[in-house]
C-alpha cells in the first residue's frame, strides 16, 4: 500500500489566478449566477485555481476529481472549522461542521447515537402528526408562495421533534428564532464584517445571542427531565468513560443542527414542489406509489418509496442546498498536481459537478430516471453527486432529512394538487444557502382527501 502523502510533490505547479475587482473579486458574479461563475472559472482556469472572493484570496476546487480530493482530505491538510469560520464562524461556532480532526471524531461518534435507526423511527413517528397539523392550516390559491410556508412548517417541525414540543416557544418567539437563523446564514457573503447594527453581520451577531438565550433557557429542564427529542438525547450522550457534552457544547450543536435541519429540508421540498408542479406525470407517479400508505407512514414505509427517492435525488442534483463547502489549509498541500499554500481559504464548489455533461447527459433537464437502478448516472464518478458533502464531514442527518422530506411531500400529495407555469424560471437568491427570491409561487388547489387505510 502506498504511503499517505504528507507533503506536496516538489513538482506541484502554482495555481492559475483569476483577477478581479479588489476585495469584491468574484463575489458578485457568484451571487448573480453561481453556476455560470463556476463554469467560467473551470473553463478558463481548470479544476484548481485562485480567485478573490468575499474579501480574501481563495483556492477553488471544481469538478468531481478536485472536489473529491478536497473532501476526502487524505493528508489532513484541509480543516473545516477555520474554513466555515471565515464565513459563519461567529454564528455557528463549534457546531459539528466546524470541528476538526480528533475533536470532530469524538463529537461525531457521540452524536451518532442521536441518529440511530430506532431514534430515526421515533423522530419520524413524531413528525407525521406535526406535518399534518402544519399543512391543515395552509390556505391554497393561485400564486401560493411555497418557500415561506414550508420554512415556517419545517422550523415548527424542528422545534417539536428536536426540542420536544411547540410549548417551548410561542408563535411570536418562533418567528424571532426563524429570523435569527436567517440572519446568521445570510452573513456568509457579507463584505462588511464588523459588529455594526443594521448591517448583515450585525444582525447575525444579534441573532446568535438570541439563539444562545433560547436554547440556554431550556437546557436545565432537558437535563433534569429528558424526553425522546434530540435536545434531550444530546444532553444524555456519554463517552465510554462517562464523559458527556458540556452545556456549551449542547447549545452549539443545537443551534447548528436546527439550522441544518430546517433550512436544507425547506430548500429540497421547495425544489420538489417546483419540479412536480411542472411535471405532472411525476407528481401522479409519486401519488400512485404512495396511494396505499396512511397519512403518517412509518420509517420502513417511507424507505420503500422508490420514486420519491428518484425525484428527491434529482432535485438535490439540480439544486444542492449547500452548493459550496468551505475549508482552510492547515499546511501546504496539492490537488491534481496544483500547489495550495498553508493557511489558504479553499472553496469546494460541488454545484458544478452536478451539471457537467461529462457525467450527466443533458444535465439541465429534469430526469429522475437517471438515478434508477438501470442507469445510475451518479455512479459514473464517486464524487459526481455530493449534495451531502463527503469524507468525515458528510452530513450526519441525511437519513433524517430524507425521511422528513418524503413525509412532507407525501402529505402534500394527499391534500393538494399544484401546477407551475411552463415558462417559469427560478429566481434564486444566493446571498446564503439558495432560496427562491419570489417565494416559489405555485397554483395550489385543495384535493379531496381519501380515507387513510
Write a structural description.
- This protein is of the alpha+beta class and 453 residues long.
- Helices cover 48% and strands 11% of the residues.
- It contains 16 helices and twelve strands.
- The chain has helices spanning 27-32, 34-45, 63-72, 81-92, 101-111, 117-136, 146-163, 171-186, 200-224, 230-236, 247-278, 280-289, 299-303, 306-318, 350-353, 398-415; strands at residues 48-53, 56-62, 78-79, 144-145, 324-329, 333-335, 338-340, 345-349, 416-419, 428-429, 435-436, 441-446.
- The strands form four sheets. Strands 1-2-8-5-3 form a five-stranded mixed beta sheet. Strands 4-12-9 form a three-stranded antiparallel beta sheet.
- The radius of gyration is 22 Å and the shape is globular.
How many H/I helical runs?
Answer: 16
Give the low-confidence spans: 1-7
Q: Going across the major beta sheet, what is the strand order?
A: 1-2-8-5-3
Biggest sheet layout: 5 strands, mixed
Overall pLDDT metric: 91
Our Rg estimate from Cα atoms comes to 22 Å
- Please count the beta strands (DSSP E, at least 2 residues each): 12
Share of helix among residues? 40-55%
Tell me, briefly, the overall form: globular
> By helix and strand content, what is the structural category?
alpha+beta
Quote the beta fraction.
Answer: 5-15%
Order of helical and strand elements = HHEEHEHHHEHHHHHHHHEEEEHHEEEE
The first-to-last residue Cα distance is: 56 Å
Amino acid at each position: 500500500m502506498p504511503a499517505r502523502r504528507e507533503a506536496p510533490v516538489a513538482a506541484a505547479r502554482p495555481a492559475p489566478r483569476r483577477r478581479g475587482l479588489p476585495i469584491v473579486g468574484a463575489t458578485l458574479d457568484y451571487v448573480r449566477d453561481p453556476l455560470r461563475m463556476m463554469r467560467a472559472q473551470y473553463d478558463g482556469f481548470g479544476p484548481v485555481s485562485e480567485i478573490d472572493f468575499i474579501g480574501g484570496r481563495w483556492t477553488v476546487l471544481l469538478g468531481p476529481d478536485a472536489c473529491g480530493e478536497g473532501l476526502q482530505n487524505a493528508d489532513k491538510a484541509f480543516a473545516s472549522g477555520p474554513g466555515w469560520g471565515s464565513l459563519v464562524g461567529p454564528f455557528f461556532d463549534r457546531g459539528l461542521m466546524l470541528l476538526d480532526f480528533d475533536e470532530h471524531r469524538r463529537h461525531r461518534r457521540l452524536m451518532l447515537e442521536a441518529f440511530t435507526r430506532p431514534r430515526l423511527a421515533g423522530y419520524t413517528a413524531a413528525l407525521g402528526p406535526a406535518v399534518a397539523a402544519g399543512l391543515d392550516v395552509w390556505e391554497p390559491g393561485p400564486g401560493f408562495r411555497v418557500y415561506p410556508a414550508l420554512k415556517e412548517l419545517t422550523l415548527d417541525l424542528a422545534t417539536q421533534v428536536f426540542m420536544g414540543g411547540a410549548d417551548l416557544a410561542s408563535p411570536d418567539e418562533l418567528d424571532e428564532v426563524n429570523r435569527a437563523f436567517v440572519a446568521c446564514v445570510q452573513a456568509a457573503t457579507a463584505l462588511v464584517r464588523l459588529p455594526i447594527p443594521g448591517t448583515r453581520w450585525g444582525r447575525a451577531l444579534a441573532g446568535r445571542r438570541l439563539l444562545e438565550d433560547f436554547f440556554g433557557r431550556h437546557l436545565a429542564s432537558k437535563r433534569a427531565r429528558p424526553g425522546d427529542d434530540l435536545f434531550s438525547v444530546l444532553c444524555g450522550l456519554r463517552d465510554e468513560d462517562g464523559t458527556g457534552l458540556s452545556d456549551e457544547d449542547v447549545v452549539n450543536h443545537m443551534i447548528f443542527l436546527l439550522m441544518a435541519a430546517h433550512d436544507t429540508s425547506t430548500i429540497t421540498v421547495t425544489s420538489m414542489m417546483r419540479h412536480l408542479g411542472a411535471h405532472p406525470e411525476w407528481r401522479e407517479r409519486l401519488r400512485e406509489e404512495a396511494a396505499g400508505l396512511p397519512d403518517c407512514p412509518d420509517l420502513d414505509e417511507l424507505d420503500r418509496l422508490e420514486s420519491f427517492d428518484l425525484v428527491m435525488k434529482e432535485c438535490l442534483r439540480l439544486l444542492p442546498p449547500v452548493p459550496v463547502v468551505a475549508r482552510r489549509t492547515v499546511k501546504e498541500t496539492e490537488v491534481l498536481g496544483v500547489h495550495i499554500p498553508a493557511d489558504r481559504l479553499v472553496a469546494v464548489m460541488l454545484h458544478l459537478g452536478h451539471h457537467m455533461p461529462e457525467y450527466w447527459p443533458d444535465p439541465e433537464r429534469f430526469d429522475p430516471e437517471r438515478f434508477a437502478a438501470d442507469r445510475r448516472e451518479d455512479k459514473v464518478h464517486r464524487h459526481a453527486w455530493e449534495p451531502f458533502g463527503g469524507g468525515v464531514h458528510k452530513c450526519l442527518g441525511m437519513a433524517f432529512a430524507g425521511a422528513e422530506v418524503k413525509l412532507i411531500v407525501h402529505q402534500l400529495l394527499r391534500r393538494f394538487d399544484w401546477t407551475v407555469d411552463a415558462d417559469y424560471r427560478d429566481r434564486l437568491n444566493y446571498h446564503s444557502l439558495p432560496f427562491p427570491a419570489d417565494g416559489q409561487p405555485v397554483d395550489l388547489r385543495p384535493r379531496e382527501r381519501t380515507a387513510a387505510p
